[in-house]
Amino acid sequence: MTLEQLKYPIGEFESQDSYTAAEVKSNIQIISALPSKFINLLSNWEDDRLNTPYRPDGWTVRQLIHHVADSHINAYTRCRLAMTEDNPTIKPYEEQLWAELPDAKTAQIELSLQLMRYVHLRWVLLLNSMDETDLARTYTHPATGRVFRLDEVIANYAWHSEHHYQHAFTLAARNNW
Hints:
By secondary structure, the chain is mainly α. It has helices at 3-7, 21-42, 47-50, 61-84, 95-100, 102-106, 109-129, 132-135, 150-174, and strands spanning 138-140, 147-149.
């Protein structure tokens, strides 16, 4: 595999101008399934595997799992802000620096898998409650000034879910784990 394929095993996220109700439902199902997929894949992995980078100069699987939990907690919060405020400006965070913090480099992945599991339960309840008007609600990212609709956010995090799952899955496949 090329480095680009290792970075983007399912390709880069491609935004659409709009999303059908069926696409939104499918994207919510992808988000919903992620914690179980990670738990099933990683349940028997020892520290040596968890401390293996999924690509050259990439995060370890441990850092990857903690990143996904951090990212999805932020996404859940951003969705709630967009549902309760008029186009709020969200608070960005430095994901690369968060991945270098001691807890991201050393904590047991079970902590983030359980965080992910319960955040996703709440997040999916919120997402499934959204109607067409809710899905059109927005927030602004201050780094770019770009306005994001919640239907696009849902699509982006469905992609993000599968993107990172495939990092761990393809590492396991390449190593016959």
